[in-house]
Design a protein that fits this description.
Layout lengths: L1 H18 L1 H23 L11 E6 L5 H10 L6 H11 L7 E6 L4 H7 L8 E6 L5 H10 L11 H8 L13 E6 L4 H21 L10 H14 L6 H14 L6 H8 L9 H5 L22 H8 L8 E4 L5 E4 L2 H21 L1
Length: about 350
């Protein structure tokens, strides 16, 4: 009798499991969710990273983040389910992206690539972006913080000038802005030497082909002018116009009165805006108070800015002011310039109302 009772209970339990609709629904949902999760993981983390050929280079910029990197891959249709990749990174990859050039081989999964670029030791080459208009101080800071660069010369100007055998007393403007690729382990001295030699070649070539009757005594003065032009406009079509304004002002004995030189002269005291007091305070770089050019460049000028300094436009403009909508308004006399200034202020006032 006890055995019969036990069998009856077992049958009852099995019947409950097989016939209870809630249990069956839960089981089906669990299986479906597991299959969906497996599919998503296979299509995202464990899918092959798209590679053309057997291998290709993957460039990671300095300051890049995983979130932006994954979004870019998704926008290019190289990965699926970007949210899954971001969640995986958050919980399983503790380090940030490391700048450099990485080698991605055919057959590597997206997960393997995400983990690889978190370790600078995996980089094959180093990518350094030197932006036109930035300063030599910013360049040296970039090199100093880069883990793939071996440091030899440090950040002191005197040491760098001596190590690179530079015939000038100031480093500003002497290095060519561009995107450069270097082997891992390259020294800062090698990188700076390369950038310096490129800039000098650009300057020498442009100086040989310069227009006649320019107000520069030396090619170094032309480099100073190029750095000012670089800081005044980011519109390529305006480079020669800005150059023309400053060249004509020099020839007429007018002061350049350009804000970027004031900012450079202020150094760390500059906090984002220029006061009237700053414009009146004499420094070696304040072109509102000094005649002619400042003593050195104020930034790293591009090849386009250097060429503009050598080939200014031939108009009559001696003033310019921002339009407020991108670009500048160039004027031949003070009356025209004052009207342009009023128009600029009106645009700013309208934008302030809208915001």
């Amino acid at each position: 009798m006890p055995k019969t009772k036990s069998k009856s209970k077992t049958q009852k339990k099995n019947g409950f499991f097989s016939e209870n609709p809630i249990v069956k629904l839960f089981f089906v949902l669990f299986v479906a969710a597991s299959l969906c999760l497996a599919f998503v993981l296979q299509q995202s983390l464990f899918s092959d990273y798209p590679v053309q050929g057997k291998k290709q280079k993957l460039s990671i910029n300095s300051g890049e983040t995983y979130s932006r990197f994954i979004d870019q891959l998704a926008a290019e249709h190289k990965v699926k389910f970007p949210l899954v990749l971001k969640v995986y990174r958050k919980f399983f990859i503790q380090d940030s992206l490391k700048a450099g050039i990485y080698e991605v081989k055919a057959g590597m999964s997206v997960r393997q690539v995400l983990e690889m670029i978190a370790n600078a030791e995996n980089a094959q080459m180093n990518r350094i972006l030197v932006i036109e208009g930035t300063t030599v101080k910013q360049l040296l800071n970039t090199l100093n913080k880069d883990p793939l660069v071996e440091h030899q010369v440090g950040q002191k100007s005197a040491e760098i000038i001596k190590a690179l055998n530079i015939p000038y007393t100031h480093l500003e403007g002497l290095f060519a802005p561009d995107t450069y690729f270097f082997d891992k382990g390259t020294t800062d001295q090698q990188i700076l030497t390369d950038l310096y030699q490129r800039q000098m070649k650009i300057l020498d070539t442009a100086w040989e082909k310069r227009d006649s009757d320019l107000p520069y005594k030396t090619k170094y003065e032309a480099l100073i002018m190029a750095s000012i032009i670089e800081k005044e406009t980011s519109v390529d079509s305006e480079l020669r116009q800005v150059s023309g304004v400053f060249v004509r002002r020099l020839k007429l004995g007018m002061r350049l009165q350009t804000d970027p030189t004031v900012i450079y002269g202020m150094g760390d005291a500059y906090k984002g805006s220029i006061t009237r007091q700053a414009l009146r305070t004499p420094t070696a770089y304040n072109t509102y108070t000094i005649n002619g050019l400042p003593p050195t460049p104020i930034a790293l000028p591009s090849k386009k800015a250097i060429e503009a300094a050598m080939h200014p436009d031939q108009s009559d403009a001696i003033y310019f002011v921002a339009t407020g909508n991108g670009g500048h308004k160039f004027s031949r006399n003070l009356e025209e310039h004052n009207r342009a200034v009023q128009a600029y202020r009106a645009v700013l006032a309208e934008k302030n109302k809208e915001s």
